[in-house]
Design a protein that fits this description.
heterodimer, A: mainly alpha, ABC transporter involved in vitamin B12 uptake, BtuC, 11 helices, 2 strands, about 5% strand, B: alpha/beta, Rossmann fold, six-stranded mixed β-sheet
Chain lengths: ~290, ~230
């Protein structure tokens, strides 16, 4: 029963990893940009939520109503003013610029908020749990996180395959010159994709901050979890990304169960194993 | 003489240091069908790309409907009513046939063309509307590319090498639909390597060679022999 519990907790954590991964995968899919600053943007969102909750005295989950639009607008502006200038045939400039951005965000947060660990307090919901089966109880907060993750993935799937914006994303990803002939301004389409990516980052950041301590230096590790989830799931597949996050979460939970020191190692080992036997990921998009 | 829909004056185009067009000047009257013929590398596709805004040009080198558009980006030119059916079709592979058509209509110009109207023109596209665009035969892909351009309700539609890689019977079939498109009030610019097809479809023909117009005239006044001579530069 203890093992079942471990696996269930791992699945719930996997939802959070899938959310780290979703924004990353979206940006790579639409504009072939590997956003090295993705993890730091998640941490930035956590600090934005910290400021919002402290200023307005509201619950972190309510603060999403502010943090999501703030991050989305920041994403649009970031893409229009900086990242669009780095895009071209060469993959290296965006990589270098987002790497620089990562360092700038970390140090700016360090200057403003110091290196102290912070946490958002969501109130009684944090400790609430429901017993689904005898011996297996689920925390309400992890469950909520998982449900939100599934909802975000489902919403992205809908947006990509059922809306005009999604068609614009896919067309621009396919063929940039021809998408412009369709009246699509690539710079605007890319900025919309980044806005959407950072809206998801905002949700992930708030959930992360409610769940655990955070400080300015933890971004890169979130980036790694995101990358691993994307690669395990297979590039270009939203549901694959969710599966990738869950596999990573469960691996870490099982590793931690065997020995607390093995938590991260187990996740990385499973990732490397899948990369070795199935480099295209478990659910690559069929073209 | 009424003001032409498209007026090009002393248009140059460059790929890096290589000059592809040398001072092209021409006028396309509204509701006409104009074709450009010439060998590979004569600059026909470059001309179309320049008009569509995919190549940099001086603002006043291209005037469309009285407005200088030479320096406008492609998405802006598209919104003004110029559609390009690109060489090699260039359908979006991750979109279905219907989605390819819908994205053409996404820029929101009003006009007679809709999904239903395109399906009426090319019934085979309706049958295959849910398949991936890459699963279509070459001729169907060309129909889809033309449909996608029509969905934008353009005033000027430019077709680059419609016959490229297609069986003659399919080419004839597609060309047979062009009069219907022209009759709906769309001015057509056709780039074609197939001289016979170009002369048959158009009112006015231009022959291009090494980035310059070397011969032009109404299709009734110009002989096939003169076009061939200009085509091969002999």
């Amino acid at each position: 029963m203890e093992w079942v519990n471990t696996i269930v907790q791992g699945i719930l954590t996997g939802g959070l990893y899938a959310m780290f991964a979703a924004g990353l995968s979206l940006i790579f899919g639409v504009m072939r940009l590997v956003n090295i600053a993705h993890g730091d943007l998640i941490v930035l969102a956590a600090y934005v939520a910290l400021v919002v909750t402290e200023t307005l005295g509201i619950n972190p989950l309510v603060s999403l109503a502010f943090v999501v639009p703030i991050m989305a607008i920041a994403g649009y502006v970031l893409q229009r003013t900086i990242l669009n200038r780095t895009l071209g045939d060469d993959l290296l400039p965006p990589l270098l610029v987002t790497f620089g951005l990562s360092i700038i965000i970390q140090n700016a947060l360090l200057e403003i908020f110091t290196a102290d660990s912070r946490k958002l307090n969501a109130g009684p919901i944090e400790t609430a749990s429901i017993e689904v089966l005898p011996g297996i109880s689920l925390g309400v907060l992890p469950l909520l996180q998982f449900v939100l993750a599934v909802a975000v993935i489902a919403a992205m799937q809908f947006l990509f395959y059922r809306t005009a914006t999604g068609r614009a994303f896919r067309a621009t990803s396919d063929d940039q010159p021809v998408s412009q002939l369709m009246g699509l301004d690539n710079r605007h389409v890319f900025a919309l994709a980044m806005a959407l990516s950072l809206a998801i980052v905002a949700i992930a950041g708030v959930l992360l901050a409610v769940r655990a301590n955070f400080d300015p230096s933890i971004g890169p590790a979130r980036l790694i979890f995101g990358f691993e989830a994307v690669i395990i799931g297979g590039l270009g597949s939203m549901w694959g990304t969710l599966a990738g996050g869950i596999i990573l979460g469960v691996s870490q939970a099982i590793g931690a169960k065997i020995d607390p020191g093995w938590q991260l190692l187990a996740g990385h080992l499973v990732f490397l194993f899948i990369l070795a036997i199935r480099p295209q990921g478990l659910f690559p998009k069929v073209q | 003489m009424p003001e032409p829909l498209l007026d090009i004056r002393a248009l140059d185009a460059f790929y890096g240091d290589f000059q592809a067009l040398f001072g092209i000047s021409l006028a396309v009257p509204a509701n006409s069908v104009v074709s450009f013929v010439g060998a590979n590398g004569a600059g026909k596709s470059t001309l179309l790309k320049s008009i569509a805004g995919l190549m940099p040009a001086k603002a006043d080198a291209i005037t469309f409907d009285g407005e200088a558009i030479g320096d406008k980006p492609a998405y802006d030119v598209a919104k003004r009513g110029i559609a390009l059916v690109p060489e090699g079709r260039r359908l979006f592979p991750s979109l279905s046939v219907e989605e390819n058509l819908m994205i053409g209509g996404q820029l929101g110009r009003a006009g007679p063309w809709s999904l239903a109207r395109v399906y009426e023109l090319f019934p085979v596209l309706f049958e295959r509307r849910n398949t991936s665009a890459t699963a279509l035969s070459g001729g169907q892909q060309q129909m889809c590319a033309i449909g996608r351009a029509l969905m934008a309700n353009p005033r000027l539609m430019m077709c680059d090498e419609i016959s490229l890689g297609l069986a003659p019977i399919i080419v004839r079939d597609i060309y047979a639909r062009l009069p219907q498109i022209a009759a709906a009030g769309i001015t057509l610019v056709i780039v074609e390597q197939d001289v016979a097809q170009a002369l048959k479809a158009a009112d006015h023909v231009y022959c291009m060679q090494e980035g310059r117009i070397v011969l032009q005239g109404r299709t009734g006044d110009i002989t096939r022999k003169a076009v061939s001579a200009a085509y091969f530069g002999v």
